[in-house]
Each structure stands twice: as structure tokens, then as C-alpha cells.
Amino acid sequence: MHGCAFLPLTTGTLARLCAEPDGTASAEVRTVRARADEVEAAAVRSWTVLLAGCRTTDPPELVGRLRGLSEATARYVGRHWWFGAGSVHRHRVAGAQTRLENALAESDGGEFARAFVTYDHAMAGAVVCARRPVPTGDRTAPAAGRAPDLGRAPDLGRAPAGTAPSGTDETDT
User: Fold this and answer.
1) Are 9 and 122 within 8 A, CB to CB?
2) pTM of the full predicted structure?
3) Which of 61, 82, 150, 153 has the most CB within a 10 Å radius?
4) What is the mean pLDDT of the chain?
């Protein structure tokens, strides 16, 4: 399973947040990163079981790890945001988590892979949107028809428009 990554967007975003230029990374972001690493490891084990065609009657370790990552993320982004303005992200994460749990219960490797892509996108989006920098200083009105610039979100490794490899769908959000 060398090179297998289930949370590339989430772990990449968290790695950048942990590597702040001033050397400061909050305990919460370090905890979220640790939980994401635990999910990665559990996902590899679950994927191996699915590829081997095995069924397990025990609740998979991955389910607990996913819940741990969600809880750590809620602490990092702040419960007020997570249950308020960020509730759309919380619902996306929860929906993808449910899909993952169902895929594990049904031993459906294809659905497991699709649900993990959705989960990764939802989790990374929540982290980025909750911590988007807000500019200070002179706030002028944006040009007509343009949204205000609320600061640059971290690069999540997406290919520039029109350069995605053939067969990928870069339009899903």
C-alpha cells in the first residue's frame, strides 16, 4: 500500500497550517493533524480488508478514528462556527462519514473510495473556510459584479482550471 493516501487535501492543508513561518501552530491544529494521520493509517487497514474480500463483524477501527477527527476539527474551528456558519461543512463531513460507514458495513470497496474522496474534500474545506484570513485596514467596496476579496485561501493542490488530467472531474465542489 506504499503511496496510498486517503486524506491528501486534509493532511496537506494541516501540514501547511502546522508549518507557519513564525513557528507557531496551535495545539488544536496539531491535534487535528494527529487525528488525520490516525484516520490515514486506519483507512489503509480497512482498504486492505476490503481488497482481500474479508468481512468483519467488529465495528471497524476507522469509524472511531473518523469520529475523533470530526471532534478534533470541531474544537479547532470552534464549536460556535462548526454549529453555526460552518454547519454546511459539518453536514457534508457527517454525510460522507455515514457513506464510509455504510461502505464498510457492506464491504463495498468502490463506494468506500468514492466516500473517502468526498470526506477528504469536506474536511479540508471546513478547515480552510473556518480559518480563512480576513483583511484588515481600508475596506473598499468591490467592483460591480465581483465578490469582495476575503483573503487568499491556502492552495489545496488543485490543478489550475482546464489543466486537470483526463478523466477527472475538477468541477465538483
Assistant:
1) no
2) 0.71
3) 82
4) 77
